[in-house]
Hints:
13 strands, 26% helix
Amino acid sequence: MRYFQYLCLCALTSVCLAAAASDPVPYATEHVIAAGDSAAAIAEKAAKVLPRPNQSAWMRMERTFFLHFGVNTFNEVEWGSGRETPSLFNPEALDARQWLGAVKQFDGKMIVLVAKHHDGFAMWPSRYTAHSSAASPWRGGKGDLVREVADAARAADVKLGIYLSPADLYQLKTNPSNPAGYYGNGSPVVMSAIPTDPASFQSDPSRGRAPTPGFQSYHYRVNDYNRYFLNQLYELLTQYGPVQEVWFDGANPDPSVAETYDYEAWYDLIRKLQPQAVIMGKGPDVRWVGTESGYGRTTEWSVVPLPTAPAQFRWPDMHGQLGGREQLKPGSHLWWYPAETNVTMLANGQWFWARDKRPRPVTQLVDIFYSSIGRNGNLILNLSPDRRGLLPDDQVAALGQVGEIVRATFATNLAAGAQASADHAAPRHAAGAALTASSTPGGRPPPAAAAAR
């Protein structure tokens, strides 16, 4: 009898597995490859991973811009030391409207401002550091670069993104210019109100200050540096209007001093303050393409396999081939994780202006356009204002020429009047949806139509 029951159970199990295998795979933001999945089932799961809403909005922008400007501009270096004096920062002719005018020449949809680079100099009057624009002579100590860029971007109908460097050489505990620095100071993890009362930042971090109108306070268990970072994030994400992208760099100019970044707290605060924003780099929404050349992979997948569930993944920089079928192994979590292709306007990979730096040739910039957006990534092209606070004429001219060439190339809609058909289409996503790409510069299908990439 037991043997008969065993045979019946085996038969029932086989029938259930067969039925499960024949069930259609639903569209979802995550799929997991099971040990018994066939090659066809794996391919279908990969094709039916969808972007999250913030990613869909981000992908449709296609052409975006970086802007690196700060104390490094005045010292004509790429990386600062954290020991710079704020008095050197004084761009007497700064005009963010000129910067946005250049962005519009190339039909840019977003500008990501470097609000704090690795040197730690804050380009806005932060309550939590003396090393900021408020300590400089610019605008009589009243200057706020984030405000000026946010206002100019809004007037130009361009989205705003924020780059905030996790590395901070000014706050480095070994910096003789700031011996009380928070970075790597070995402080304990304690309950901290965000935003914190600056007067009790270390003595009683559980004491908060009044939140920005329209926002609220939050609490995290963090050390001094992570509390500092969270407070700067809070300022940037509550005082300047909508933010579409938060950019975290993985570079660290001085790894001899250890500091553990509390990415989970950072992500949580971003989701609460600006839920529509994508987190770029060390985060779950957008990945670095893996090079600063401006060239994506010839096959740049939006869906990539993760070795663990997204909630447990640490989001390292990704290199090599990512999404081919040979990478789709049992246990992998399939996740929409599109690429951002960053590159400098200046030749030789230079991010900050210096008097001897010149733009890349226009022909190369056009090629980069096709090799970034054309390879299923978003392009983020860096602009470098000079000491005046203006973009030099050669950068503006080169950008204008690239914009003219791209617009002329796509002036005629070759898909106009065409009809599309497919052997299979998801509900509400007929084959004709792919033709809606012809209405957008660059011609990338909308994310729903490109889900199989």
